[in-house]
Write a structure and sequence with these properties.
D-Amino Acid Oxidase, Chain A, domain 2, 540 residues, 3 domains, 30% strand, single chain, disordered N terminus, 6-stranded mixed sheet, 12 helices, FAD/NAD(P)-binding domain, alpha+beta
Length: 540
């Protein structure tokens, strides 16, 4: 029989449940608030509270705010001024799974997404939408890949957001003067050896100058483990939108159960998650620029935002939980998270082609320059090897992404992201050398976004401030890992711990003292139901 103990607390931030040796075999401790203390010392006894399931009282009210934020300045115990970039996949999937959690009660629980611009305004709307069992981290990928299939089955994802399986592989391509001539591409000029690292170009005043070339920097999509899964194979017959004559080799992600690949249209998927959450009572407030998260040294209290249309400030009181899903801006909200932004450019073609995701390694001829650069008397920006990624997408689209760059710092909001036309034109030119189909296709979008990057992987879980959560740092795999992250966040908030997967490696408190419970020293007493009083101290 399940043994349960109920403890009435005035405030989770003033009291803590303390286990005695006799209570250590209890299955549940029910409190009015979620408690996440790691270790508490009481009368010389160490108690590991995180090993217990601390369940939420089903009658407790919850006021949950999901925000994407940009940090400006902060005081550790008063308020965090913010400027949000826009709701993305992590925020919308968190709202979706919160609203479908078995303990969700719309009469008691309020969930709000505060959105400064529009849903999917950042990377979530401009990603490739690739889903893969060979993605990372391994504690999120299998769960999330399965949830994608279940969501598509439940909500008609094949038609609503283009969910489908697709082939995935990598091609090695060698471009020659003859192949360019056959495709009516501009011919390379006679040029110095490819080992040259500087080239002559015209400066704005007409005086020749120098321009350095660089190695292509690959996006962090495939880690070493994923590359090891590639196997030599014949070029698929239906991969007819590349020039087979210039393909030297093809490697297939073809191991059943390990290298399966699928995709969604990221914008349609993100906006659909938001709409489905709304159907269950989640409020989405757009044009709402979050300005402050008010907190005490131990808990969140309220959230303030600016109604950008009316120009008025609104305060949401009695907030119990704030989930920071700030993507690349997370490092500004929580500096010790070390989440940064990495800009990446992409283009979208109007083209209906066979469903393949293609990684490339393209060797360009010596002296080749993309047409837009050659017309200005400039050489190409890169050395001879470039690696565009190309994903055929549903709804008559093909998505291609180029290399990341750090030339422009992360702006304040997603709608201020700058697109460098030269980066997009480079990408279009390189792809045109081996794909006549895409070279002739209309280009419907040239875009850039910032990927939330963090060495060591994403952070998902509690911070040192009670009620303040973080879910960010998913790099290239935010769309892939969004459903698992959202489901696990719903379990953190409503169950007190993640149930569907062991994500202890992603615990934010593992990586920085500012995330660790016990940052501040605090002493108080808890009068237990037995009438006995125990003293405890939260130590540094």
């Amino acid at each position: 029989m399940t043994r349960v103990k109920y403890v009435e607390l005035q405030s989770v931030y003033e009291y803590c449940v303390v286990y005695s040796a006799l209570e250590s075999d209890l299955d549940y401790i029910i409190t009015r608030y979620y408690i996440s203390f790691e270790i508490i010392s009481s009368t010389g006894l160490q108690i590991h509270c995180h090993n217990k399931h601390i369940a939420m009282d089903p009658l407790a009210k919850r006021n949950i705010i999901i925000v994407g934020t940009k940090w400006l300045t902060s005081s550790p115990s008063s308020s965090l001024p913010l400027s949000p970039p826009g709701g993305g996949i992590i925020g919308t999937t968190t709202a979706y799974f919160l609203s479908r959690h078995p303990k969700f009660n719309p009469a008691l629980h309020r969930i709000t997404i505060l959105e400064a611009t529009s849903i999917a305004a950042g990377a979530s709307g401009q990603a490739g939408g690739l889903l893969a069992l060979w993605a990372y981290p391994s504690c999120l990928v299998p769960l999330s890949y399965r949830l994608h299939a279940e969501l598509a089955e439940e909500h008609g994802g094949a038609t609503r957001w283009g969910y489908r399986k697709l082939n995935c592989g990598s091609i090695d391509v060698t471009i020659t003067r003859e192949s360019l001539q056959a495709q009516h591409q501009p011919q390379p000029a006679q040029a110095p050896s490819s080992t040259t690292t500087t080239t002559t170009t015209a400066t704005p005043n007409g005086v020749p100058g120098t321009e350095e070339t660089k190695d292509w920097e690959r996006l962090p999509k495939q880690d070493a483990a994923a590359e090891d899964l590639l196997a030599d194979s014949a070029l698929p017959k239906d991969l007819d939108w590349v020039n087979r004559a210039v393909v030297d080799a093809y490697q297939d992600m073809g191991m059943p159960g390990a290298t399966e690949t699928a995709q969604v249209h990221p914008r349609h998927f993100t906006t659909s998650m938001a709409a489905l959450a709304q159907e269950r009572g989640v409020q989405i407030v757009t044009r709402a620029k979050v300005t402050k998260i008010h907190s005490s040294p131990s808990r969140v209290e309220s959230v303030e935002y600016l109604n950008r249309d009316a120009g008025t400030h609104v305060t949401i009181p009695d907030v119990t939980d704030v989930v920071v899903t700030a993507g690349p801006w997370t490092g500004h909200v929580l500096p010790k998270s070390k989440v940064t932004g990495l800009r990446a450019h992409s283009v979208v073609y109007e083209a209906d082609v066979s469903p393949h995701a293609v990684f490339t390694r393209v060797l360009l001829p010596d002296g080749y320059a993309p047409p837009h650069r050659a017309a200005r008397g400039r050489r190409r920006r890169h050395n001879r090897v470039v690696d565009p990624e190309i994903y055929a997408r549903p709804f008559g689209e093909v998505y291609a992404c180029g290399e990341p760059d750090r030339a422009v710092p992360l702006p304040d909001t997603a709608d201020l992201v700058r697109v460098d036309d030269d980066h997009c034109d480079d990408l279009l030119a390189y792809i045109a050398t081996f794909s006549p189909t895409l070279a002739a296709a209309p280009v419907k979008a040239r875009q850039a976004c910032y990927l939330p990057q963090r060495e060591g992987g994403p952070l998902v879980g509690a911070t040192s401030v009670h009620g303040l959560w973080v879910a960010a740092g998913h790099t290239c795999w935010g769309i892939q890992n969004g459903p698992a992250t959202g489901k696990l966040m719903s379990e953190f908030i409503f169950d007190g711990k993640p149930i569907s997967s062991d994500i202890s490696d992603l615990d934010p408190r593992r990586y920085s003292r500012t995330f660790l419970l016990g940052v501040m020293e605090m002493s108080t007493s808890l009068k237990r139901s037995t009438g006995e009083t125990h003293e405890y101290t939260r130590r540094r």
